[in-house]
Design a protein that fits this description.
It is globular and about 35 Å long. The strands form two sheets. A four-stranded antiparallel beta sheet has the order 2-3-1-6, sandwiched between helices. It has a two-stranded antiparallel ribbon with strand order 4-5. The chain has a single domain, classed as RRM (RNA recognition motif) domain (Alpha-Beta Plaits, 2-Layer Sandwich), CATH 3.30.70. It is α+β, with helices and mostly antiparallel strands.
């Protein structure tokens, strides 16, 4: 079930945010890693809008809150492709949005600094 910006009430915690992902993590790999916890509604890996560079951030939407919680319990602070990943339940994507803004600001800062 999709929720739009006019949804009234608290969003069910079915979204899971992944941070500190290795650049080589792709959607099929992430989907396969998460499918053992329940049915997945969507998987999104975030990239820099101008460069297309992998930001190390992703979001997976499960069809139930139980599946999302089980994925977080099993995957948080585990090593995936050499990186210790952080996995959190993130209803509405607020944590993801903060991480995304931080990463984009850092990329812009270093681009200015290097020039």
């Amino acid at each position: 079930m999709q929720y739009d910006k006019w949804y009234i009430g608290e969003l069910p915690p079915k979204q899971v945010t992944f941070t500190n992902l290795n650049d080589n993590v792709r959607e099929p790999f992430l989907r396969e890693m998460c499918e053992k916890f329940g049915t997945i509604e969507d998987v999104t890996i975030y990239r820099h809008p101008k460069t297309g560079k992998h930001l190390g951030l992703a979001q997976v939407g499960f069809n139930s809150t139980r599946s999302a919680r089980n994925a977080v319990q099993a995957l948080n602070r585990t090593s995936v492709m050499g990186n210790i990943i952080i996995v959190q339940v993130d209803a509405g994507g607020k944590k993801l949005q903060g991480e995304k803004e931080t990463k984009l600001n850092l990329v812009s800062f270093f681009k200015i600094f290097i020039q």
